[in-house]
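hey can u check if this looks right to u? its 270 residues, i copy pasted from the old doc so theres a chance i mangled smth
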Amino acid sequence: MSSAPFARRRLQVAGVEELGAYVVLRVLDPDGPPPRAGQFAMLAAAEDWGGGEDERPYLPRAFSIARWREHEAHFLLEDVGPGSRRLCALRAGDALWTLGPLGTPFAPPAADSPRALLVGGGVGVAPLAILQDELEQRADAEVSVLLGFRDRERAHGASLLRAARVVTDDGSVGERRLVTELLGEELERAPGTVYACGPAPMLEAVRALCAERAVAAQLALEAPMACGFGACYGCAVARRGGGYLRVCLDGPVLDASLLERVEAHAGAPV
């Protein structure tokens, strides 16, 4: 597993691309370790990172690494609050602080069952893009991509992946259906390992469906984080049978069987 130096690094933005409602932030990282699919980084703008004069600075924000190419880390961002808005405003040449790659990545499917079903919702498609890159390097790869979005503007995020089947809540792109309905149909056709990332209700539906059908599933959870390396316990989630798991350290990728259910994690907009 790739592990980051235990210190934040000052890096430079290589470029910014608009993708409908999203922004793809490309960050130069010439000396950082290559990430694994499912890992994340804590990001903070080097300048103007706070609520204003005499106000506390924002905490760093956790973002999945969507792609790694020639020492560039790509991140998929959406403006949903003051912290993410500042990161979306960065431009080529701007500096930002990065801590990563962090967390537990996706595990490859078993050799005797190489089919992989990638299921994503909204900005949660990000770690599935780099996962598709990894899986397609395998000679036996059989990858199906199922993505769901709220509307047409967010459906532009599907362009990060190849040969994706897309549905939307309003029917503006693809069919007006839930992505979990597509997953049910795919599992009827042929078994495989499910890899999913997205909002908590979608992940819970994926978890329940896979549990009902005894299908292996790995879920990349999204949770507000303060540190990113397990010290603050701010991202703890309940574990099946008792105890807690830290999303930043034990996850963000967790075997679905470890969870009784996927709960919406409380936290302020990023």
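The mean pLDDT is 92.
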